[in-house]
Design a protein that fits this description.
The structure is a homodimer.
Chain A (H helix, E strand, L loop, with lengths): L4 E7 L7 E7 L21 H4 L5 E8 H9 L4 E3 L2 E3 L2 H6 L3 E7 L2 E6 L5 E6 L4 E6 H9 L3 E4 L5 E3 L1 H4 E6 L4 E6 L5 E6 L4 E6 L4 E7 L4 E6 L11 E6 L15 E7 L7 E8 L36 E5 L2 E9 L2 E3 L2 E5 L3 E8 L8 E5 L4 E5 L4 E7 L4 E6 L12 E7 L1
Chain lengths: 410, 410
């Protein structure tokens, strides 16, 4: 790749299967030096200005099936253990192209049928819909508008576009609806979600969000068959939405009803004390096949109920123990000072969600065991004394009594 | 304290100011040995059985003002740096008593006026309301029912009780309402909250919860002036309440309307992927006086905008830098291989919630800076090359351009 700053990518699918697109910034190759204290290139424009000087940056388009042929033909070298196909090989094999896109682009989202890719340049109010049919035709005919300094063919932006739509201020990411042509784009500066039609090229309606939406998602919106119905706005700021609790406000996730034929409607705010939300997916619950408990075979040191034991080999002591409401087995374990302890413990509960904690006093041993889970703790019993071990998850009315003793004798 | 297992405590207030109560379990002093693999005391009853053999355990009652006098009189010894008043001194000074309570007790909650303490023994369906007036009278008259093996006076349970109420299965913790006499107790086994009157000694009504409530809270319910209106049930299990996602289910917090004069009503479920909820408080929002940004004086290495600089002292390089949308100052910093870098960076934003991230490529430097916050990173520039540093929180439409370069020359 040329020394631009590559950003988000999306994979082709359906019509564009085997291809990928990647946005870039700073195709100006600008170097800053703004502000006090620079030790080089002083008193220049800030990066934020210099990197936004040109009106367009470059979408990088890769033909992965062509790249695969180069790989199989051995036309790569190993760099840090990774196979790297040189840029010249990619160019010669018609596998790498550049396509101008509105400057400082953010989202690049391929349509469910793979025919289109929607790109939003966050400093441009227009969102651009590129047509892979037109892109492939230009590539096929080698109809290039020029080359970049590294010799990569540049496609003609106007010839590759299906449409451009003025959606609002600061468009970022786009997600697809189950209704053909309907998409949702986050407007960071406007703090809105815009619903628009990328086939007909027109805005349908908007909903305000609180505040500064970055990413967004629709139900299965990145798949070949989006489910529609719901959208979640993943917002970066939540000023004046919730009770202030300090300099840092929560991240706000807003659930929005996007049922076709009526305005979008906010259903629910979910503030979370987590980091900034990025890409996320909503999938239908029937795709989940969760296990109720871990399988024995997941844990080589699984301890079967009734097979609990303490084994000694010199000063190596291995404890095979179990936990089930409301006792550990064994309950009393005597070792000697200096013994090296390997303690396997299995939660042998059959009940759902029946978690047990396990802590050994003074020996910095603490874990939480889900049903069927086995944990192993290793420590040296270097202090003589009587050390309770006990459950640390309230597991039944006799939780406080779920205890035992490690006796370390001199 | 005697070698029972002391559990939760509550401080007296108002009428009982200066006193405290502490529950205990295993006043049987039982030692188990159940299950396979015991290396001592084999084939005994499990702890859970042996520790529940007696019908009652002991509430420990401490007179802290009397203890303070002993401390001031020098009647203590230092253990691990803590002043410890010997049990005999406490007994001689009438400062330590035991009071029987239903076995395996859980909550001990003093009433807003300090006159009563409510204790729930989780193996007993009855909740006991003790009257401090009666307790103080017994203490005053030295009307004791006996002594424990360590010589601690035992008060007569029947003489200390205001009332006992059959509230349901597995009562744990109690919280107070703004309505005089009204309290809420969590019923772990029944999976319910019971509303009852501890002055009149009668159950009012119940609400089912999902599932297995442990702790609970009412608005300012632990204070001398509870606010009523809302209760949160802090539940330990959430089986079949939410879409299953694996062996571990979320913890479920349920918000319940406890407005007087009508049945309790569930308002809201809040599943959280956190550990088991324990004591928590709900306070009125007007008690919070949050800051919008950190004060300069909180950070000795605060960097003022316009005072950014790079200082060198031998191979010690100190960088004083700032971050504000959408640039760092300085943007270009050149150092030499082997330099020891101390990098102070201040987020000088005035806007609320305007967080910046800060990462230096390849040098394992990453932080998140709230408005007004200063962070310091130290590392040795041991690899020559060009290392971008950049913001990692989407801070504006020019976030991607908020970057700079650390040049490490040979």
């Amino acid at each position: 790749m040329p020394p631009y700053m590559q950003d988000v990518s999306d994979a082709g699918k359906g019509f564009s299967e085997g291809w990928s697109v990647t946005n870039s910034v700073n195709t100006e190759l600008y170097i800053g030096g703004y502000g006090k204290g620079n030790t080089k290139w002083k008193n220049r424009l800030a990066y934020e200005a210099g990197m936004s000087a040109k009106d367009t940056d470059y979408m990088h388009i890769v033909n992965w099936k062509a790249a695969e042929k180069l790989f199989k033909a051995g036309k790569y070298r190993k760099v840090n253990g990774h196979a790297l196909i040189p840029m010249e090989e990619m160019i010669a094999a018609n596998a790498l192209f550049l396509l101008p896109e509105a400057k400082s682009p953010h989202g690049a989202d391929v349509s469910p049928d793979g025919r289109y890719v929607i790109v939003s340049g966050k400093l441009d109010t227009h969102t651009t819909v590129y047509d892979f049919k037109k892109i492939f035709s230009l590539v096929e005919k080698k109809d290039f508008a020029g080359k970049d300094p590294w010799g990569i063919p540049i496609l003609d932006m106007k010839k590759a576009i299906h449409t451009q739509v003025n959606v609002g201020l600061g468009p970022l990411h786009t997600q697809y609806d189950s209704v053909k042509g309907v998409v949702y784009t986050s407007l960071y500066v406007d703090s809105m979600v815009v619903r628009w039609d990328y086939l007909k090229g027109k805005v349908l309606n908007k909903i305000p969000i609180h505040y500064n939406i970055g990413h967004l998602l629709t139900a299965e919106g990145d798949t070949v068959e989006p489910d529609g119905k719901y959208l979640i706005a993943l917002n970066k700021l939540a000023i004046d939405r919730f009770t202030p609790i300090g300099p840092l406000h929560p991240q706000n996730h807003q659930l929005i009803d996007i049922t076709a034929g009526r305005p979008m409607q906010l259903l629910y705010d979910m503030p979370l004390p987590l980091g900034e939300p990025h890409y996320a997916q909503m999938i239908k619950a029937d795709k989940l096949k969760p296990v109720v408990r871990f399988a024995k075979k997941s844990f080589p040191d699984y301890v079967k109920a009734g097979k609990e034991r303490v084994e000694r080999n010199g000063n190596q002591v291995t404890i095979h123990s179990t936990a089930i409401r409301s006792h550990f087995s064994p309950e009393v374990i005597e070792v000697k000072v200096g013994d090296e302890i390997t303690w396997h413990i299995t939660n042998v509960e059959r009940a759902q969600d029946q978690v047990h904690g396990f802590a050994v006093d003074s020996y910095n041993v603490h874990g939480s065991l889900e049903p069927g889970e086995t944990a192993t703790f290793k420590f040296v019993a270097d202090k003589e004394g009587v050390y309770p071990f006990y459950c640390t998850e309230f597991c039944s009315a006799l939780h406080l009594e779920m205890t035992g003793y490690l006796l370390v004798k001199p």
